[in-house]
Amino acid sequence: MIEIEAITKRYGDTTVVDDVSMTIAPHTITVIVGTSGSGKTTLMRMINRLVEPSEGTIRIDGADNHAIPGHELRRRIGYAIQGHGLFPHRTVAQNIATVPTLLGWERRRIDAKVEELLSLFQLDAAAFGPRYPHELSGGQQQRVGVARALAAEPNILLMDEPFGALDPVIRAKAQDDLLAIQRHFGTTIVLVTHDMEEAFHLADKIAVMDKGKIVQYAAPEEMLVNPATDFVETLIGAGERPFRLLSVGTTGEAAEAGTADGEPLAADASQRDALSALLWSGRDALPVVGADGEPIGRVTLAGLARRAARPQ
Ligand SMILES: Nc1ncnc2c1ncn2[C@@H]1O[C@H](COP(=O)(O)OP(=O)(O)OP(=O)(O)O)[C@@H](O)[C@H]1O
């Protein structure tokens, strides 16, 4: 659990984070969005004390983060940034092993961790471990950057625009990998992004910042249905709202009893994907199957339309 209490950061006369309080529950993904310069990065960096606050307290699992030496904190909290920040003269394996080596882990444990992470990120350890960062694609470098941030098994992972430099296809893949990895390790993730699509895809809770303040901190569905201010509504993109509502729910949740013809949809696909498949196939209904391939019902255009409509 991360408890941020009345935290303020000033540079000279300028207040860049203004009396922010928020609690981040363990094992969740919190996404911070907002306009450029609204203080997102500064707020996040006060968690691992890359930036020292002017006022206020941040507690990590109950302990004031000021009571923990900065270097210790940054070892315990993973940090991944856009452009990955890999060491160019170290191999992929050495990069991932950086913090475990600092912590004095045994060689065998380090090797096992490197292999586990590379395979979780779908990189073959034998092929990629010995390579240098310049021998990887941008997307692969980025995955190694996140793998490195996770190597010491941190409870908390801070991510600053981690997928900002990736093309849309690789980016979507990287987001899905991150969700799978977060479930695997139960890591508490705080992520800053400019991309609302990404925020709605990943977040358990979204914090919207404007001029150093949090203007709304809520679950995606709640924010869509009840945006706190005009600013939040603009940021969400009012025209996108029905589609975003569908993108935060799964097809399984929208499944109704009954059967339908056509290519089945996976229950864990988003309702937005289901809508797209329905429109594209020209059908009113499509079958839904569970992870085991067994039918669990059908999803209908009318059912999705009800879910995308303003709640009454
Ligand atoms: N070391 C510093 N000294 C002075 N001002 C700073 C410093 N670091 C950040 N700022 C200012 O604080 C404000 C908030 O910066 P921050 O990087 O937190 O914003 P952000 O919301 O992450 O922006 P972006 O989305 O553009 O990355 C900006 O106006 C920035 O210029």
UniProtKB/TrEMBL annotation:
<dbReference type="GO" id="GO:0015697">
    <property type="term" value="P:quaternary ammonium group transport"/>
</dbReference>
<dbReference type="GO" id="GO:0016887">
    <property type="term" value="F:ATP hydrolysis activity"/>
</dbReference>
<protein>
    <submittedName>
        <fullName>Osmoprotectant transport system ATP-binding protein</fullName>
    </submittedName>
</protein>
<dbReference type="InterPro" id="IPR003593">
    <property type="entry name" value="AAA+_ATPase"/>
</dbReference>
<dbReference type="InterPro" id="IPR017871">
    <property type="entry name" value="ABC_transporter-like_CS"/>
</dbReference>
<dbReference type="InterPro" id="IPR003439">
    <property type="entry name" value="ABC_transporter-like_ATP-bd"/>
</dbReference>
<keyword id="KW-0067">ATP-binding</keyword>
<dbReference type="InterPro" id="IPR027417">
    <property type="entry name" value="P-loop_NTPase"/>
</dbReference>
<comment type="similarity">
    <text>Belongs to the ABC transporter superfamily.</text>
</comment>
<dbReference type="GO" id="GO:0005524">
    <property type="term" value="F:ATP binding"/>
</dbReference>
<dbReference type="InterPro" id="IPR046342">
    <property type="entry name" value="CBS_dom_sf"/>
</dbReference>
<keyword id="KW-0547">Nucleotide-binding</keyword>
<keyword id="KW-0813">Transport</keyword>
<feature type="domain" description="ABC transporter">
    <location>
        <begin position="2"/>
        <end position="236"/>
    </location>
</feature>
<dbReference type="Pfam" id="PF00005">
    <property type="entry name" value="ABC_tran"/>
</dbReference>
